[in-house]
Amino acid sequence: MHYLQQWNYCPECGSKRFVEHDFKSKHCEDCGFTYYFNAAAAVIAIIVNEKGEMLVARRGEEPAKGTLDFIGGFVDPGEGFEEAVVREIEEETGWRCEHGDGNDENNLKILFSLPNTYLYSGMVIHSCDCFFRVFIPSDAPLKANDDVAACWWEKPENIKVEDFGLHSARIGFKRFTKTLRVKS
Q1: Fewer CB under 10 Å: which end of the chain, C or N?
Q2: Strand 71-74 vs strand 68-69: parallel, antiparallel, or unpaired?
Q3: Which residues are registered as beta bridge partners of 88?
């Protein structure tokens, strides 16, 4: 189902005359309200340690429950990407990392972004996922929390891309590990 078809009534006045305006918006013919279906902002942390391992998580909730994932989630209103990734890491692992200027190996570094879709409550949510490289020491006391069922350190070569349940996590894993091979 196309995302515009998920909304039948104007959120402003409740009119059924809420029609497609263009490829990403609907317009109410009664009150004149136009709603743009923009992508939701999300963050993904590719967490690495000094041993060259990556922190992988097992999803504890749908969508893709039971599959591999990275730590991350949606950006809350009033948050920047850096604040969101720090919050998500703390919520899902218990680890409080700090973000700095990006020049220190112990700080967050923005890597790239990818479009994604996320099925939530029967609706397809379009997101733009901002990937970060985050360093956490291998002896950090990490504990799976929130919607993460488990998390552990793994060498990238032991991880199968097809074990990731979400599209952007699979693409992000491939893209990140490709840079590791280039540097070797």
Answers
A1: C
A2: unpaired
A3: none
Q: How far apart are CA 98 and CA 43, in angstroms?
A: 15
- Give the pLDDT confidence of 136-174 residue by residue, as tens digits: 999 999 999 999 999 999 999 999 999 999 999 999 999
Could you please report the per-residue DSSP string of the chain? Answer: --GGGG--S-TTT--S-EEEEETTEEEETTT--EEE-PPEEEEEEEEE-TTS-EEEEEE-SSSSTTSEE-EEEEPPTT--HHHHHHHHHHHHHS------SS-STTS-EEEEEEEEEEEETTEEEEEEEEEEEEE--TTS-----TTEEEEEEE-GGG--GGGB-SHHHHHHHHHHHHHHHHH-
pLDDT at 12 over 80: yes
CATH node for 40-183:
3.90.79.10
The residues, ordered by sequence, that sit 6+ positions from 79 with a Cβ below 8 Å of its Cβ are 87
The position carrying tokens 């990490």 is: 142
For the chain, the structural domain boundaries read 3-36, 40-183
What values do phi and psi take at 64, rounded to 5?
60, 35
What digits encode the pLDDT tens for the residues 36-65? Answer: 989 999 999 999 999 999 999 999 999 999
Residues contacting residue 23 through CB under 8 Å, at least 6 positions apart: none
| Token pair recorded at residue 74 | 């949606």
